[in-house]
């Protein structure tokens, strides 16, 4: 068995591990560490920590977050379309306009239902 064939794989694993661990180790060694009560307190998802895990909370925060992700991902489709607009021609332009029309109709629907209102 020739070990020279496995050298690139081993090198890839070592370099990948070093790239993953080295920044964390450097940050831990060189970064300032001044913990206080506010920094050490639990905080998650826009809400202060509460005592009972089954306590009811307002889901509008998550609704707005999901809507943001949905519309953000749909808008991300505009970048490849804009880059390839010259090659896809008029049919690609019309298909993107249909896509954008559906997106606008969905946005108007969400707005009319009050999904974007906090109060």
Q: What does the model show?
A:
- With 119 residues, the protein is mostly helical.
- It has a domain at 57-119: NADH:ubiquinone/plastoquinone oxidoreductase, chain 3 (Methane Monooxygenase Hydroxylase, Chain G, domain 1).
- Helix content is 66%, strand content 3%.
- Strands 1-2 form a two-stranded antiparallel sheet.
- The longest helix is centred in the C-terminal third of the chain and has 28 residues, at 85-112.
- It is flat, with a radius of gyration of 25 Å.
- The mean pLDDT is 83.
- Low-pLDDT stretches are none
Shape: flat
Number of helices: 5
Order of helices and strands: HHEEHHH
How many E strands? 2
Oligomer: single chain
Distance between the termini: 70 Å
Query: Class of the domain at 57-119 in CATH?
Result: Mainly Alpha
CATH-scheme architecture of the domain at 57-119: Up-down Bundle
The third-level CATH topology of the domain at 57-119 is Methane Monooxygenase Hydroxylase, Chain G, domain 1
Largest sheet: 2 strands, antiparallel
Structural class: mainly alpha
Strand order of the largest sheet: 1-2
* Average pLDDT for all residues: 83
The CATH superfamily label of the domain at 57-119 reads: NADH:ubiquinone/plastoquinone oxidoreductase, chain 3
Throw out a few tags for this protein:
119 residues; mainly alpha; Methane Monooxygenase Hydroxylase, Chain G, domain 1; two-stranded antiparallel sheet; 5 helices; 2 strands; 66% helix; flat
